[in-house]
Amino acid sequence: MNIILLGPPGAGKGTQAGHLVKARDMVQLSTGDMLREAKDSGTEMGNMVADVMARGDLVTDEIVIGLIREKLEGDNKGGFIFDGFPRTLEQADALGKLLDEAGQGIDAVIELKVNDEVLVDRIVGRAEDARKAGQPVRADDNAESLKIRLMAYYKQTSPLIGYYYAKDMLTSVNGLGTMAEVQAEIADLLDA
Ligand code: AMP
């Protein structure tokens, strides 16, 4: 079973994906994690995207589609969780095509619904927690980048809600619940 987790930054996509990896042996494909890895290991592509990411803008479709294409060739175990991808209509079309070619499909697109105040609190909180724990703070977890990330979400990613709704693939869960509540809602949906 392959699923897409859709939602703004701070909606809890990464947290829920992490749970599904453990609970259902699924494979998390987070383009954000892949890009951060490339940046941290100083690859040419990583250096190219570092500024764009720190600012909060989207990197090019070509780069992220390339990253996903590579991963689709690997083992998908209990299924792929697309986390933070697709983020544009072009990426969504490309993913549909790539999965089609691999004889696979998307079983569910799960939108995590939250409101903007919660996002700001969660992201600022995430940065504070990391700082207190002496862990590295994401370069884009600050108020300025967050505004740009939210704008990118509304301008470029939120049209995907209509896109997948029209394809009869969209389901929404309340992302404002506790981690366990959201987990349970997603589990019900996947087991239905
Ligand atoms: P995330 O960890 O999903 O919040 O992603 C962090 C940053 O990586 C984003 O703000 C973008 O700069 C970049 N990024 C991650 N996924 C994508 C994507 N699918 N398309 C374009 N840029 C992306």
Task: Write structural notes for this entry.
By secondary structure, the protein is of the alpha/beta class. 58% of the residues lie in helices and 12% in strands. It has nine helices and five strands; from the N terminus they run E-H-E-H-H-H-E-H-E-H-H-H-E-H. Strands 2-3-1-4-5 form a five-stranded parallel beta sheet, sandwiched between helices. The radius of gyration is 16 Å and the shape is globular. The model has no long low-confidence stretch (mean pLDDT 95). Adenosine monophosphate binds at residues 9, 31-32, 35, 52-53, 56-59, 64, 84-85, 87, 91, 140, 149.
Give unreliable regions as ranges. none
Share of residues in helices = 55-70%
Task: List bound small molecules.
Answer: adenosine monophosphate
The H/E string reads: EHEHHHEHEHHHEH
Biggest beta sheet summary = 5 strands, parallel
- Structural class assignment: alpha/beta
Number of strands: 5
Present the secondary structure layout.
Elements: E1 3-6, H1 13-24, E2 27-30, H2 31-40, H3 44-55, H4 61-72, E3 80-83, H5 89-101, E4 108-113, H6 116-132, H7 143-157, H8 159-166, E5 170-174, H9 179-191
Parallel strand pairs: 1-3, 1-4, 2-3, 4-5
The structure holds adenosine monophosphate.
The site of adenosine monophosphate has 17 residues, from helix 2 and helix 3.
Looking at this protein, list some descriptive labels:
5 strands, binds adenosine monophosphate, alpha/beta, single chain, 192 residues, five-stranded parallel sheet
